[in-house]
């Protein structure tokens, strides 16, 4: 088994398919953990061997594993030490009495990996701009990363819109910019109007990109793209200006195409946009796979809850077929985009969190999120600190593999509507 020094505490780090048996030029060195040195062409990887290491004949599948209890592993930050921790993710502040959910670490099949190192992360991204493109779950990951990095350097908030959706932070000592480019669907959308009144549904134009995030792409070096939760509700789907179907609608005249269809088309449009963007050559795009919710006995609006206090085992997630289907759709689309993007020097990878997070029904705020929403359980987002901190362990490992990141000529300033 591959190990590092016993003084290091391990946590959830996964690796996308960048490491494969067919990539002969990649070599592995053990320098306080795993260190992969990549050839100049960073786009040569195969998603078909997702999450594997091969070292000295030993193979480690990092996306398969289980959560291990480790009471000696403290989080890098707490709800008291992180000054940027948002109130509605502060589960302990809002009355959660158990803290076991922060004491589990991910154990990949066949290996151990070191925990998140903020100094190494900031060193890799020095001089870069990293954007989380997606909905509030993507923002949740940024908030986790912000807390983790703040243990090394205090960031400065340089922009926040009126609705607190688009936000930008800078780490001046490392000339590093961290931001959220918020979007519900990645593609253009507007609320559905019936009899001059807006409804809870949205009209999605699957062939038109949401320019609120896309207009800022040329200023970004690393794009972490995600989305899915907003698709799991009543929506109406358009292409070429024509209604082609819906998701969960009750209109017998409209074909119910389901969330998977819309997720596929939206990610395809977004990834095609990245590859077609003339000013985005050399960008590293990482697709963070579907983050499952854990509502039981109802939904967000019908009294659903998430009261569990321990992780699931592998047997308990086998029936979550739809969740894994959404993940598989995303993986297929990023592989297609990778093949197309090679000509532009664009690199692609995965932060494949779906299976691991299916096992964590205990990690959501539940009722412990904010008082003005009393009675509603948040079983979508994740407590801070909590299991979502593991996503950035994964992110660090992916960035290590791509290090050093290429220099890009960025002449576009950030723009916000």
UniProtKB/TrEMBL annotation:
GO molecular function, one term: O-acetyltransferase activity
GO CC terms: Golgi apparatus; membrane
Keywords: Membrane, Signal-anchor, Transmembrane, Transmembrane helix
Name under which the protein is recorded: OLC1v1011218C1
Organism taxonomic ancestry: Eukaryota, Viridiplantae, Streptophyta, Embryophyta, Tracheophyta
Domain Trichome birefringence-like C-terminal stretches: 113-397
Cited InterPro entries: TBL, TBL_C, TBL_N
Membrane topology: Single-pass membrane protein
Species name: Oldenlandia corymbosa var. corymbosa
Family according to the record: Belongs to the PC-esterase family. TBL subfamily.
Trichome birefringence-like N-terminal domain segment(s): 59-112
Localization, UniProt: Membrane
């Amino acid at each position: 088994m591959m190990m590092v020094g016993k003084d290091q505490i391990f946590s959830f780090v996964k690796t996308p398919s960048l490491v494969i048996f067919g990539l002969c030029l990649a070599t592995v060195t053990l320098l306080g953990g795993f260190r992969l040195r990549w050839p100049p062409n960073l786009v040569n990887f195969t998603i078909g061997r997702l999450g594997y290491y091969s070292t000295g004949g030993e193979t480690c599948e990092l996306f398969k594993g289980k959560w291990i209890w480790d009471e000696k592993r403290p989080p890098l930050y707490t709800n008291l030490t992180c000054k940027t921790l948002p109130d509605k993710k502060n589960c302990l502040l809002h009355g959660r009495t158990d803290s076991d959910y922060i004491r589990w670490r991910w154990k990949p099949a066949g290996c151990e990996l070191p925990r998140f190192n903020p100094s190494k992360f900031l060193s890799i991204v020095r001089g870069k701009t990293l954007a989380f493109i997606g909905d509030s779950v993507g923002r949740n990951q940024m908030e986790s990363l912000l807390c983790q990095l703040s243990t090394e350097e205090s960031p400065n908030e340089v922009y926040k819109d009126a609705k607190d959706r688009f936000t930008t932070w800078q780490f001046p000592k490392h000339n590093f910019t961290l931001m959220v480019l918020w979007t519900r669907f990645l593609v253009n959308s507007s609320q559905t109007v019936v009899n001059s009144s807006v409804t809870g549904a949205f009209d999605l134009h699957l062939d038109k990109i949401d320019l609120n995030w896309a207009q800022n792409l040329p200023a970004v070096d690393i794009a972490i793209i995600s989305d899915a939760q907003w698709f799991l509700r009543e929506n109406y789907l358009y292409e070429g200006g024509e209604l082609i179907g819906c998701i969960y609608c009750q209109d017998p005249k409209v074909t119910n195409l389901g969330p998977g269809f819309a997720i596929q088309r939206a990610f395809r449009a977004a990834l095609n946009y990245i590859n077609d963007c003339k000013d985005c050559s050399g960008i590293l795009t990482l697709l963070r796979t579907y983050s499952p919710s854990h509502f039981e006995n109802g939904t967000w609006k019908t009294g659903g809850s998430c009261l569990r206090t321990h992780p699931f085992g592998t047997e308990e997630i086998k029936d979550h077929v739809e969740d894994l289907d959404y993940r598989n759709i995303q993986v297929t689309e990023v592989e297609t985009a990778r093949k197309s993007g090679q000509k532009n020097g664009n690199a692609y990878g995965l932060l494949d969190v779906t299976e691991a997070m299916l096992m964590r029904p205990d990690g959501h705020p539940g009722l412990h999120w904010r008082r003005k929403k009393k009675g509603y359980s948040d079983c979508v987002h994740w407590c801070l600190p909590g299991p979502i901190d593991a996503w950035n362990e994964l992110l660090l490992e992916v960035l290590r593999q791509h290090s050093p990141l290429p220099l890009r000529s960025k002449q576009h300033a950030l723009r916000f509507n």
